[in-house]
Amino acid sequence: MFSIEKVYTAKEVAEDGYEAMLLGKLVKLSALTPINKFVLKNMNLFPVKRVLQQIKMRQEGNL
Question: Contact 41/29 with Cβ under 8 angstroms?
Answer without folding.
Answer: yes
